[in-house]
Design a protein that fits this description.
The protein has 361 residues and is mainly α. It contains 13 helices and no strands. Helix 8 runs antiparallel to helix 9. The two termini are 30 Å apart.
C-alpha cells in the first residue's frame, strides 16, 4: 500500500491497545517484496545466472516465512486495523500480493526441481485466490462510509489481475506434480488467465474514470500504478506457459486464441513504460514529491522484473531475437532496481530499530 493510501486508510483507524505501531500499520501489500525478489530470481535463472538467482530465492523464501508470521501476528494482535484494511478501497486489494507472492515463490522453487514443495504452494494460492476473489471485492463494494468508492480506486486494484495470472503460471509449471487430473489443471489455468485479462480491462476502466472525474495529483500517482504494466506483462508470461502445456480439451480450445494475444499484450507493456517513467519525473522532479522508502516501491520492482521475464519468454517461444534482447536489458534494470529498493528497505528497518532502541522504556 502506498504512503498516501496508507494515510487515507489509517486516518480513522483506531489503534489497537498494546500493539506496536509498526505491526499495526504493516502494509497489506508487503508480499510484493516476495513477488519482486522472486521474479528477479526467476529472470536470473532464465539467463543462467545461477548463484545470484539462488541468493534471491533464499531471500524471497525467508521473506515469505517472516511475512506470514507478521501477518498472522497482526491479525491476532491488531484485529481492528486488519479488518479496516480489508474493507478499505485503498488497501484491500493489496492483500492479493499474498496470492501472487505464493505463486511466484512456487514457480521459482519448481525451477529448482522442488515440485513437491511448489505444488502444495500453488494449490494453497489457488484456494486463497478463490476466497479473496469473492470476499475482498464484496467487502470493498459494500463499504458505506460516506466517501465515493470510485474516487479511491488506485493502482493496487490491478494486483487482483496479477494474482489471477500468477495462478495460471503456477498451475502450468507444477501440472505434473499437482496431484490433480490434467484436464482440471488445464481448465483452472485457462480460467485464471481469462479472469485476469477481464479484470485488467475492468480495473483499467475504473482507474481511468477515477482520473477523469476526480483528477490525480503528483502525490497520488504512486508506485502501485506501475502494476498496470506488470499485470499485462504477467499475462504474457501466463499465456506463453499455457500455450506450452500438455494437450487437454480446454488448452486445445484456447491455445490459438491465447497465443495470438501475447505479442499484443507485450507491445502494450512496452508502450506503457515511457508513460510511467514520465509520471515519475512529473511526480518527483517537477512537483518535488520526496522519494523515500515505502513498501509500495516493491510495486515497481515486480513489474520491471516481470516485463524482463515476459520479454525473455516471448522472445524464445515466438523466436523474436529483438524481444529477447530487450528482455536481457530489462533484466539488468530489474536487478538494479531490486538492489536499490532492497538496500533502502534494510536502511529503513535499521533506522527504525535504532530509533526504537533509543526511546525510553
Amino acid at each position: 500500500m502506498s504512503p498516501d493510501a496508507a494515510a487515507e486508510s489509517t486516518r480513522h483507524r483506531p489503534r489497537t491497545p498494546g500493539a506496536g505501531g509498526a505491526l499495526e500499520h504493516l502494509a497489506p501489500g508487503y508480499f510484493a517484496l516476495v513477488m519482486g525478489t522472486g521474479i528477479v530470481s526467476i529472470g536470473l535463472h532464465e539467463v543462467g545466472a545461477r548463484v545470484p538467482s539462488l541468493v534471491l530465492l533464499v531471500i524471497a523464501a525467508a521473506s515469505y516465512a517472516v511475512l506470514w508470521v507478521l501477518y498472522i501476528w497482526r491479525a491476532a494482535a491488531c484485529r481492528t486495523a486488519m479488518l479496516h484494511d480489508l474493507r478499505s478501497p485503498e488497501a484491500a486489494f493489496a492483500y492479493f500480493t499474498v496470492v501472487a507472492g505464493t505463486d511466484v515463490l512456487a514457480v521459482r522453487l519448481a525451477a529448482e526441481g522442488l515440485l513437491r514443495v511448489a505444488a502444495p504452494l500453488v494449490l494453497f494460492a489457488a484456494a486463497l485466490w478463490f476466497v479473496f476473489g469473492y470476499v475482498l471485492p464484496w467487502q470493498v463494494l459494500m463499504t458505506r462510509d460516506g466517501e465515493p468508492i470510485l474516487a479511491r480506486t488506485n493502482g493496487t486494484w490491478f494486483i487482483w489481475a496479477v494474482a489471477s495470472q500468477s495462478l495460471a503460471i503456477g498451475l502450468s509449471v507444477v501440472e505434473p506434480a499437482a496431484g490433480v487430473p490434467g484436464d482440471v489443471v488445464g481448465l483452472l489455468a485457462v480460467l485464471s488467465w481469462s479472469v485476469g485479462v477481464a479484470l485488467y480491462a475492468g480495473i483499467a476502466v475504473l482507474v481511468l474514470l477515477r482520473i477523469v472525474h476526480f483528477g490525480i495529483t503528483a502525490r497520488q500517482f504512486e508506485p502501485p500504478y506501475w502494476v498496470a504494466m506488470g499485470a499485462m506483462a504477467i499475462a504474457v508470461v501466463a499465456g506463453t506457459k499455457i500455450v506450452q502445456m500438455d494437450s487437454t480439451p480446454m488448452i486445445d480450445a484456447t491455445r490459438v486464441l491465447i497465443a495470438s494475444t501475447v505479442a499484443v499484450f507485450w507491445s502494450f507493456c512496452l508502450w506503457l513504460i515511457p508513460m510511467l517513467i514520465g509520471a515519475g519525473v512529473w511526480r518527483h522532479l517537477v512537483h518535488r514529491v520526496p522519494l523515500g522508502y515505502t513498501p509500495a516501491l516493491w510495486s515497481i520492482v515486480f513489474p520491471v522484473g516481470m516485463f524482463a521475464v515476459a520479454s525473455l519468454n516471448l522472445g524464445r517461444v515466438d523466436k523474436l531475437p529483438v524481444v529477447e534482447a530487450i528482455g536481457h536489458g530489462a533484466l539488468a534494470v530489474a536487478v538494479l532496481v531490486w538492489a536499490l529498493v532492497f538496500g533502502a528497505m534494510l536502511r529503513h528497518l535499521l533506522l527504525g530499530w535504532i530509533r526504537g532502541r533509543r526511546q525510553p522504556a
